[in-house]
Amino acid sequence: MTIKINKPIVSYRVAAKTDSPDSLFTSSEKVSSQDGGDLIKDIAEEPSNIIEMHERIERPEMLRGSTYKIKTPYSEHALYVTINDMIVNAGTPYERKRPYEIFLNSKNMDNFQWTVALTRIISAVFRKGGDSAFLVEELHAVFDPRGGYFQKGGKYIPSLVAEIGSIIETHMKRIGMIQDEPLPEHTRKILQEKRREFEARTKQSSSGTDDGLPEGAVLCNVCSTRAMVYLDGCMTCLNCGESKCS
Question: Does residue 190 share a domain with residue 170?
């Protein structure tokens, strides 16, 4: 239940379960009885023993997690990222998975110091609780002075740290911390049609390049994927739909 606030907040108090809807607002701030009733209902039905992730939660003997593999062109050895999850409010309707700790492991010892530091800092942020999804954006903003590289599929990765951020984002989407917003169905159909049109004009096979993208495509500044092609008189991204003409 959301109530839009159109005026500056000058005071507040905690509503009790016995408060009536009208008692929550001044005479100039009355809301409908239905809205107020919903607010009181939400307060009354919300359990008082819901556990949120915080640093005082004791680590259990066993945690379940997922391990992801990263292979960059800068090293012959892969980097393995393991994220272990804590289950809070287990067995209740409020059961949630939350990341508790992260580990980075590789045979390549060149990055040993900063990978250990990164695991400790990220794990500490996880255990603090709250919205730790901001880590994704912060890690994505790290660039390698040697230059980035492309994943299979044409997505540009500016650094190894940024790819670790992408792994964390993927994991948070899997456990429901980040809600993925896929392209609308009609937008996907339009992009598929544009891709077929582009391939027909350039007489390419359906596979395009080795990464499955049209040959000659350039990097899109919006989705960081090598899928921007010249079509209908302007540059259009066949991955996210970004267009220089729009």
Answer: no
